[in-house]
Please model this.
Amino acid sequence: MLSVILAVLLAQTAPANPRQQGVPIGKGKTLPTVRLSAPSGGWTVDRMMLVEGTVSDTTIDPVVVSINGDRYLMRTYGGRFSRKFPAASGKNIVTVMATNQAGTARAQATSYAQIPPVPFKVVLTSDTDGVYTDLHIYEPTGSSEAGDQLQVTEMAHVYWADTASPSGGTFFLNEQGGDFDQPAYGPYLYIHRAPPKGVYLVATNYWPSGDKAHTVATLNLALFEGTPHEIRRMVRIPLATPGTTRVLAWVNVLGDGQAEVYVPAQDPKPKHPDWPTNLAEALKELQTSGAEGEGGY
Model:
């Protein structure tokens, strides 16, 4: 009995295996040094913010990046990392953390962006190397009313093979100094600076490679960032079935700086009259439309 109790206590206090944490640690036994060359602080008018720097332990891959509290994983190449992110209007606090066997080191910089607020921003990451968690966005292009009920009729597909939507949505490819379609942590990015009213679908398509069986995808969604109407949601979802597309969130842009988010795994089904009543039917239509890169929902 005593041995069982000791085993339980050891299991509770022992550090988690690095693979279980989702972030492999570097092999170095000396605390690493992290240096940020960008952002350099101060003010900027650039809509895209470069996060760039070095880590002394070249075995650390990836580093963990936090931008205003949203957490991402960024690949390193020979101890260097570089990636542009859509800047938030106002303060952008960037923290980069690197972990090896000696512990975690970090560097931080703050940049103030004098830019219009971004009303619609999506960032999708994975916690596992060697997998694809492709981001897919469907934008509203048409709706109709059946009696007193609103229904989705048409949607535009924005993803890695079609990166610009008819209304101005932009998909940023997964570029971090190498092939944009390299399987890894992401991030995949999408922004719309003038999203039309209507319902949007945010989804991910999962393709593992090698011996990777599963991963956890993390969606960071920001609406009207930097304004009094700001809405932020984070959705974490396990993915295990190859070729499967999973719905992460529906977003209903109502206009006048207002929007609502519906996460099927977390929220009750919306009953507001501004929500279409045929979301399930719209999903089936998208699933059977033959668009490249889709599997079952």
Q: What stands out?
A: The chain is about 10% helix and 45% strand. Residues 1-21, 290-297 have pLDDT under 50 and may be disordered. The two ends are 47 Å apart (CA to CA). The chain has two domains: 18-115, 116-297.
